[in-house]
């Protein structure tokens, strides 16, 4: 290799690693671009992009002349007081995105006053209160767990055994139909997570936000409904709350922040979503989460 080639390669590497200061970024999509600079292409591909077409068909109805000085994002969920109805969803093997792994993510989440759902097999020990996504085949529940999420696929016998073995709130994640939502309620689930986590890239598969209204109508507030799936902006979260969700899980954006900036990046992502949700609630004349209702949005045809 010539000296000229070596200098060119070194310059390219340094340029790829240059990041905008985290507090100068204004939305999660800008943080995604920073994560792309930090990660190898194959690793970044695991957490890049998503299908957001369903969100584009849902629009908000703004209001004027409403006093929103007392705006409040707090939510009560399964005996916990949440600063905002936005949680970090579970992801396994976070060490492949940042050396700090779950420890750094939890640190950033705590700084942003955000609850975290931890995968059943974290890459570092977890000793602080968390929500836990549990493996039905190995239902080991640490003392720090406050809420459990059982992820399909599983059989109802496995759910029934787990339901009898714990008094913790137990949610089923992976619900995509009103029928399954009603069955989950009947079997004793304390809540559900609307999610198509199995393979959202399959052509023709509905997006969670699309099936949320029918599920919310079937459940009729009997148990809390959470949802995940391509949430990137505060307006996305407000749309889900209007259509019947009690809270939203975000998965990839916190990982972008983690990859690019560690704990500080996670904090920035979550605080940005909180700020956007507050701004959009104010724009629509909503002061508390209880005021958010389906008439806040309009769903357009394709």
Topology of helices and strands:
Elements: H1 3-17, H2 28-38, H3 41-45, H4 53-56, E1 58-60, E2 75-77, E3 80-82, E4 86-88, H5 101-111, E5 117-118, E6 130-134, E7 145-151, H6 156-165, E8 170-175, H7 178-186, E9 191-194, H8 208-219, E10 225-227, H9 234-242, E11 247-250, H10 252-261, H11 263-283, E12 297-299
Parallel strand pairs: 4-11, 5-6, 6-7, 7-8, 8-9, 9-10, 10-11
Antiparallel strand pairs: 1-12, 2-3
Helix pairs in contact: 2-10, 5-11, 7-8, 9-11, 10-11
Taken as a percent bin, the fraction of beta residues is 15-25%
CATH topology: TIM Barrel
Per CATH, the class reads Alpha Beta
Tally of alpha and pi helices: 11
> How are strands sequenced across the largest beta sheet?
4-11-10-9-8-7-6-5
What does this structure look like?
- The protein is an alpha/beta fold.
- It has one domain: Aldolase class I (TIM Barrel).
- Helices cover 39% and strands 15% of the residues.
- It has eleven helices and twelve strands.
- The strands form three sheets. It has an eight-stranded parallel β-sheet with strand order 4-11-10-9-8-7-6-5. A two-stranded antiparallel ribbon has the order 1-12.
- It starts with a helix and ends with a strand.
Task: Provide keyphrases for this structure.
about 300 residues; alpha/beta; TIM Barrel; eight-stranded parallel β-sheet; two-stranded antiparallel ribbon
């Amino acid at each position: 290799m010539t000296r000229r080639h070596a200098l060119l390669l070194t310059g390219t590497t340094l340029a790829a690693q240059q990041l905008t200061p985290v507090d100068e970024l204004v939305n999660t999509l800008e943080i995604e671009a920073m994560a792309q600079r930090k990660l190898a292409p194959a690793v970044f591909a695991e957490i890049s992009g998503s299908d957001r077409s369903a969100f584009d068909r849902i629009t908000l109805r703004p209001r004027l002349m409403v006093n929103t000085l007392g705006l409040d994002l707090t939510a009560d969920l399964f005996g916990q007081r949440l600063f905002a109805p936005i949680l970090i969803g579970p992801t396994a093997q976070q060490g492949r995105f940042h050396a700090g792994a779950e420890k750094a993510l939890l640190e950033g989440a705590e700084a942003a006053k955000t609850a975290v759902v931890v995968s059943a097999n974290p890459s570092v020990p977890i000793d602080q209160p968390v929500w836990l996504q549990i493996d039905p085949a190995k239902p080991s529940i640490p003392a720090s767990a406050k809420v459990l999420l059982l992820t399909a696929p599983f059989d109802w016998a496995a759910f029934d055994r787990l339901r009898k073995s714990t008094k913790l709130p137990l949610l089923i994640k992976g619900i995509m139909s009103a029928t399954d939502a009603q069955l989950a309620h009947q079997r004793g689930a304390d809540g559900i997570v609307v999610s198509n986590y199995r393979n959202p890239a399959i052509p023709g598969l509905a997006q969670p936000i699309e099936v949320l209204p029918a599920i919310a109508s079937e459940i009729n507030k009997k148990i809390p409904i959470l949802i995940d799936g391509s949430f990137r902006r505060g307006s996305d979260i407000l749309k889900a709350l209007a259509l019947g969700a009690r809270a939203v899980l975000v998965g990839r954006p916190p990982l972008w922040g983690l990859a690019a900036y560690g704990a500080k990046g996670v904090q920035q992502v979550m605080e940005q979503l909180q700020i956007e949700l507050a701004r959009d609630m104010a724009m629509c004349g909503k002061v508390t989460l209880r005021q958010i209702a389906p008439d806040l949005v309009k769903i357009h045809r394709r």
